[in-house]
Design goal:
Blueprint lengths: L9 E6 L2 E6 H33 L12 H22 L4 H18 L7 H7 L1 H12 L12 E2 L12 E8 L2 E10 L5 E6 L9 E4 L2 E4 L4 E4 L2 E4 L4
Antiparallel strand pairs: 1-2, 3-4, 4-5, 5-6, 6-10, 7-8, 9-10
Helix pairs in contact: 1-2, 2-3
Length: 233
């Protein structure tokens, strides 16, 4: 009788803190999977720390940095989202968890990233409640009262609406301030952004965009007292 071939050696491995009996090949696979899982969490944590740093640090769209900072911010968000979704997909919940995670994080990305300088109308429309809150603050005398040239800090939950986190008075009509939320600032001067005025502006109303004059009615009219104005408008 021919002896059957010997079976693979059996060894005792430790995976995720539990003792399991597996073949040599199984041990290698299990340890590799466990390592990937551990490094996956580390990568996700590092990516979200990068997102937190960007969101909590005041990185202004100054001059040509306008074409650097927003794409960089978006790239960091997309890396964090991709790593998180990949980790969720590898979890036991699988595809449903990955899809739900992706949907939630893409909405969060759309909220916290500011594409206003590139498409003012859509950013204003998707962040309408925040712009309404600024308008309410102006009408109630809580925003737009500072005479500091570059304005006053907005409430924390509204600072993403302005590249500097500030609202500046750049003109006025009939005793009502025209308040600018700058989306970019020039070096050494000028700016462009959203302007709120609680009145129908006169055609000749000129505002001061940090050293560059512009007619308010020359800008893009959004609604409810909001305009998007650039130097030369």
């Amino acid at each position: 009788m021919t002896a059957s071939p010997p079976h693979c050696l059996v060894s005792l491995g430790q995976v995720s803190g539990h003792d399991v009996v597996v073949s040599d090949a199984g041990t290698v696979a299990a340890v590799a999977k466990h390592s990937v899982w551990q490094y996956g969490w580390a990568a996700v944590l590092a990516a979200w720390l990068g997102v937190a740093w960007i969101e909590l640090t005041s990185l202004q769209n100054a001059s040509l940095l306008l074409f650097v900072i927003p794409p960089f911010e978006l790239a960091v968000w997309f890396i964090a989202i991709a790593l998180t979704v990949r980790l969720a997909y590898r979890a036991r919940a699988g595809r449903p968890a990955a899809l739900a995670t992706a949907a939630f994080l893409l909405v969060a990305c759309g909220w916290f990233t500011n594409w206003g300088p590139f498409h003012p109308a859509s950013y204003w429309a998707t962040h309408r409640w925040a712009f309404n809150a600024v308008a309410d603050g102006v009408r109630q005398g809580q925003i737009g009262t500072s005479r500091d040239y570059y304005g006053e800090l907005l409430p924390l939950q509204l600072r993403d609406l302005s590249t500097s986190g500030r609202a500046a008075v750049v003109g006025g009509q009939d005793g009502k301030p025209a308040v600018l939320l700058p989306q970019w600032v020039g070096i050494p001067d000028d700016a462009g952004g959203y302007v709120y005025l609680e009145a129908t502006p006169r055609p000749d109303l000129v505002i001061d965009l940090f050293g560059e004059p512009a007619r308010l009615t020359g800008g893009q009219h959004l609604a409810d007292g909001w305009w998007y104005v650039l130097p030369g408008d």
